[in-house]
């Protein structure tokens, strides 16, 4: 039984307040439009995840909540502080702790870690602008079996301009 991983880069954030800490940056207007579009896409394609894990940075958590609401996702959104600017190994560590009954997980985090994760798992170098979503198939029985050397299949990628 394979697992599905939805890799979502947070939506566009605001740089309007230069004094604000990077972790605290909110979404800008475009980000607040793009995130629900991703959620509607997930619902339309019957790809609503079983579980969502997000970086605890404001822009990532807000993206996760807007996507979840638009998708009709009613489960928990688990905030993982270690996903803030995480490298692929740290992202995989978080995924390995996911509930074993979750067949499809969406992870919401940051670049360059997400691009590096997709590249490492698939061998494909993809560009992930803000609010880009990647759908991967993972040949693992449960999340604890996910490794940095797992050979994933890139199913699809959606960028906000295409939604």
Architecture overview:
- This protein is an alpha/beta fold and 163 residues long.
- The chain has one domain (10-104, 111-134, 144-162): Rossmann fold (3-Layer(aba) Sandwich).
- 30% of the residues lie in helices and 20% in strands.
- The protein contains four helices and six strands, in the order βαβαβαβαββ.
- It has a six-stranded mixed beta sheet with strand order 3-2-4-1-5-6, sandwiched between helices.
- α1 (29-44) runs parallel beside α2 (58-71) and α3 (88-96) packs across α4 (113-122).
- The longest helix has 16 residues, at 29-44.
- The model has no long low-confidence stretch (mean pLDDT 95).
CATH superfamily (homologous) name: Phosphoglycerate mutase-like
Q: What is the approximate shape?
A: globular
Total domain count: 1
The N- to C-terminal Cα distance equals 30 Å
**What is the strand tally?**
6
Q: Main beta sheet, described?
A: 6 strands, mixed
Structural class designation: alpha/beta
Jot down its keywords.
163 residues, Rossmann fold, 6-stranded mixed β-sheet, 4 helices, 20% strand
């Amino acid at each position: 039984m394979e697992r599905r991983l939805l890799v979502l880069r947070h939506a566009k954030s605001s740089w309007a307040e230069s004094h604000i800490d990077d972790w605290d940056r909110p979404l800008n207007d475009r980000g607040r439009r793009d995130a629900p579009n991703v959620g509607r896409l997930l619902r339309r394609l019957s790809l609503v995840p079983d579980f969502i894990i997000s970086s605890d940075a404001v822009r990532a958590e807000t993206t996760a909540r807007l996507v979840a609401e638009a998708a009709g996702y009613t489960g928990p959104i688990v905030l993982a502080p270690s996903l803030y600017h995480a490298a692929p190994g740290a992202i995989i560590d978080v995924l390995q702790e996911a509930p074993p009954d979750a067949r499809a997980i969406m992870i919401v985090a940051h670049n360059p870690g997400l691009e590096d994760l997709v590249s490492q798992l698939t061998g494909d170098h993809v560009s992930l602008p803000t609010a880009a979503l990647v759908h991967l198939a993972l040949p693992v029985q449960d999340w604890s079996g996910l490794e940095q050397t797992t050979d994933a299949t890139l199913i699809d990628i959606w960028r906000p301009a295409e939604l």
